[in-house]
Write a structure and sequence with these properties.
By secondary structure, this protein is an alpha+beta fold. The chain folds into two domains: about 45 residues, Macrophage Migration Inhibitory Factor; about 30 residues, no CATH class. Strands 1-2 form a two-stranded parallel ribbon. Strand 1, helix 1 and strand 2 form a beta-alpha-beta unit. The longest helix has 19 residues. The N and C termini lie far apart (about 35 Å).
């Protein structure tokens, strides 16, 4: 029952977000041997000014062992 949460800056259209969810679903099915009915994807838009406190510190810095792809940036 994979559930994927994507956090990103606002600015993508509903069509872009739907396509992203579709592509993530395909990747999860292929790589995690899941069924489409078992996969869910949510998208959370985070304002750039809130990124460090809402995402970077609690999700990235606080849990480095969970990262399978580390970011190549540090927020201002």
């Amino acid at each position: 029952m994979p559930h994927v949460i994507v956090k990103l800056y606002p600015g993508r259209s509903e069509e872009q977000k739907a396509r992203l969810a579709e592509e993530i679903t395909k990747a999860v099915i292929a790589c995690a041997n899941s069924k489409e009915a078992d996969v869910s994807v949510s998208i959370e838009e985070i304002a750039p000014a809130d990124w460090a406190e809402t995402v970077y510190k609690p999700d990235i810095i606080a849990h480095p062992g969970r990262l399978y792809k580390k970011p190549g940036y540090t927020p201002a």
